[in-house]
Amino acid sequence: MGIRTWIEGWPVYRQLTGTDPLGRGAAARSPRSARLTPRTDTADAVFRSICPYCAVGCGQRVYVSEGRVTQIEGDPDSPISRGRLCPKGAASKSLVTSPLRQQRVLYRRPYATEWEELDLATAMDMIADRVIAARDATWEDVDDQGRPLHRTLGIAALGGATLDNEENYLIKKLFTAMGAIQIENQARI
Q1: CB of 50 closer than 8 Å to CB of 58
Q2: How crowded is the C-beta side of 44, counted as CA atoms within 13 Å?
Q3: Which domains does the chain have, with CATH numbers?
Q4: Residues forming beta bridges with residue 59, ordered by sequence position
Q5: Between residues 7 and 60, which one has the greater pLDDT?
Q6: What are the backbone angles phi and psi of residue 30, rounded to the nearest 5°?
Q7: Which pLDDT tens digit goes with each residue over 78-112?
């Protein structure tokens, strides 16, 4: 490759000598970039979704090819985010496609050194039994003067920022109905 060929292939040279002085069109294209296609072109379907990370509710477009998520981008039709996503939202594809994502219920018995797999129904039953036992063991019906309390201090909740407003609302209602008064959310702290 001669020096002249190298200089003519240089984008700055094409920008200064061609018809694209701002470098926004043909001057910025290389043979490699001309062959590139968007990752979204190969999608079989596009689904609309909401970013799971905070309560803002930014719109997302989820591109699926052969039953697998291939790309997640901001939804330009969303009145909330107008196609933009924060860094966490832009990286939300890894939330569903990461090979490190746990997809089974793992349980480590007290004093055990190894994890064991449980089916979901068994794990849910164990959680429900423990919540009921903790509530029963710490229930306060009245205080020392006989005033009604109807509460438990043995259960507390700390919600996460990956939940949306509706999920946080339902969790607040659930824990309040169980008598818990120590209910907080990470997004507010």
Answers
A1: yes
A2: 6
A3: 3-35 (no CATH), 39-97 (2.20.25.90), 118-185 (no CATH)
A4: 50
A5: 60
A6: -115, 165
A7: 998 899 998 888 888 888 888 888 889 999 999 99
